[in-house]
Structure formats: C-alpha cells, structure tokens
Amino acid sequence: MTDWLALAKSHKTELFDLIEKLVLIETPTSDKAANDYISSIAADLMKSLGGDVKVHTQDKYGDHVTAEWPSSEGGTNQHAFIVGHLDTVWPIGTLERMGYAEQDGRLYGPGVLDMKAGIATTIIGLRALQKEGLWPDRPIKILFNTDEEVGSPSSRPLVEELAKGAEYALIMEPGQAGAGALKTQRKGLGEFRLHVEGKASHAGAFPERGASAIHELSHRIIELQAMNDWPNGITVNTGLISGGSARNTIPASAEAVIDVRVRTNEQAAEIESTIRALTPTIEGTSLTITGGFHRPPMERTPELAELARKLIGWSNDFGFELTEESTGGGSDANLTAAMGVPSADGLGSKGLNPHAEGENIEISEQVNRLALFMKAINSL
C-alpha cells in the first residue's frame, strides 16, 4: 500500500522550488508577455512528463496551455480533468514591494496562494506518480489558462471542450478561507450594464427642457437594490456609476455596472428576466440593458457531494482535516460543473489573504495537499 504522505514529503524540495520559481514570475492578467512566458515554462514542464502539449495563442491575453495523456491499455476512456490559472491579480512591481519570504511556517508572496502553489502541486504530483509507477488507468487532460482572474473570457471554450466526457474535474484553486475547505457550491456571476440616455439642457436657465439621465438611473438603482435576497443567496450590487458632463448641465447620459450573484440556475433566469424588464419612468429618457451571466452557478449535486466525500475521507486517513463550504466567488469550476462534471474546487492550497496584502500558504499543509492530489489522481 502506498504511503502517500511519505511520497509527498520525499518531493517537498522540488515542490517548493517550483512554487518559488512560479511566484517570482509576476503575471498580472493584463500583461500578455509575462503570461506567455510562464505558459511556455508550464508547457515545457508538461512536455517533460510526456504530455501531448499544445499552446493556444491569444491576441489579448496570455497564451493558454493544454496537455493530454492517453489511457493505459485496458484503462477507462473517461478522463480526469485538471484546471488551473497562471495569471494573478497583482501588478508588476508588487514582488519588489511585498517580497517572497518564509515566516512562522508560511510562505508569503503575491500569487502564491491564488494559485501558483496549486499549479506547482499539479506538476510535481504528476511527476511523482509517473516516477513511482502510480499513473492512473484513465486519460488525463490539463488546462492552465491565463485569464481566469477576469472571468476566463478567452479560455472558456477550452474549459468547456476539455470538460466534455470527464469523469471528474479537479480545480486547483486555493481552499476556502482559513480552513482551506473544498468549495462544493459556488454562486453564478452576472454583470449587467444599465445605460440611460436623457436630454441635456442648462440646469439654471432651462431645466424644464432637459431630461436627467442620472435622475432616471437613480430610480433604477433603487429598484435593483430591492432585488437583494441575502437569505436565499441573491446579491445585487451597483458597483460603478458614471454620468453627466458638467455641474450646470442636465445630464444627457449615465451608466451603472451591476454585479449579480445567485445560487441556482433558476434564480439566475428569474433575476435576469427581472433586470431586463426594467423600464424608464422619467419622460424623455431611454434605457438600454446589456450583459448577462458569464459564470453559471456551481450547484452541489449528489455526484459532486460524493466526490467531496471521498477526498475528505482520504484527508482524514492522512491525518489532516478537510471540510467543505460554499462561496460567493466564481472560478472555472462553475464552468466544469455546468457541463455536468463533478468538480472538486479548492484542492490546491491552504492559506490566507488571497488578492490581499500578506497573501500566504501554510508550508506543512502544502505537503498534505500534494499527497491528497496524488491519491486522487491515482484512485478516483
């Protein structure tokens, strides 16, 4: 019987060497050159493991990388799908200010938690399985994309294509909150834009000749606020507003950007219909509504719950605690789950402060995560 923790510990040095290498390459989503560079490194690493590697060239974002390994003779045709992202939210120069350092059993650095540690765990885990003859009897497909932090606009077709027919998906995002829990339910995310056209006029001399776009927009924002249903997981937030041209001019245009999150597909359909039914009430104004849901809800299906149960059971066998939680944030797990694939999200690392000062991972826990990842790929 394989001692998965012992195997993970034997690869600890190369795991943390790769984490450091990846963190020291700053990859904000907006920097295509930086993401192209880290994609090329990821591609070379997966080629060294014998994967059929493809670099998917992009115009705006960094190039995405996929790798595939066929099933061994007599193995199942259903594949394991592993997903991770190489981009971070941190601008170039953050590393110089924040640094990469070890302190009190934690590693600190921009992007270390979200999600360079999960990328390194995937690569080192597969390397260890291959070296020890523990490769699974099923195909493996991997996608490392470079635009997840902005909603995967260019990589979504790749996520959905590679998810087709998968037995399960492991999304190597960090675990939820300080507990590092698996995320077994994620809200669907929508972005809507409300644009109001009014009529300009001098605010002092001829106010009656104008139609205020800002006034109209303010009424619609109050309507939107009333759509919040926090107990049932529906949140509607007017996050950005703009409009007008001068203090003494009746504003001829105004716009708001709305963030909407829901737990279920039924909620998504209902609230989108309600938003699109908004109509102006101030004479002389018109309303245009664009946008929609770009990440469907990840619902906790029985199949997903069973996948989480297995992972939690194995973690208990290894002597460390793993739990499950729901979250309002989105990831590529929303997309894989919408394809009907049981998806375990949050396996990649445990730490604190994603997207915030002091981002870090727990060093000892990362070894546990490596053991669990290897066990999952070998045994699921």
List key phrases describing it.
Alpha-Beta Plaits, 35% helix, Aminopeptidase, 23% strand, alpha/beta, 2 domains, four-stranded antiparallel beta sheet, 380 residues
3D structure, described in words:
This protein folds into two domains: 4-186 and 298-379, Zn peptidases (Aminopeptidase, 3-Layer(aba) Sandwich); 188-295, Alpha-Beta Plaits. It is 35% helix and 23% strand. It is built from eleven helices and 16 strands. Strands 1-2-6-3-7-14 form a six-stranded mixed beta sheet, with helices on both faces. A four-stranded antiparallel beta sheet has the order 4-5-16-15. Strands 10-11-9-12 form a four-stranded antiparallel beta sheet, with helices on one face. Strand 1 and strand 2 (64-69) form a beta hairpin. The chain is elongated, with a radius of gyration of 24 Å.
SSE blueprint:
Blueprint: H1 4-10, H2 12-23, H3 32-47, E1 52-56, E2 64-69, E3 80-85, H4 94-98, E4 101-103, E5 106-108, H5 112-131, E6 140-145, H6 156-163, E7 168-171, E8 182-186, E9 188-197, H7 213-225, E10 235-243, E11 253-262, H8 265-276, E12 286-295, H9 302-318, E13 324-327, H10 333-338, E14 343-345, E15 351-352, E16 360-362, H11 363-379
Parallel strand pairs: 3-6, 3-7, 7-14, 8-13
Antiparallel strand pairs: 1-2, 2-6, 4-5, 5-16, 9-11, 9-12, 10-11, 15-16
Helix pairs in contact: 1-11, 2-5, 5-11, 9-11
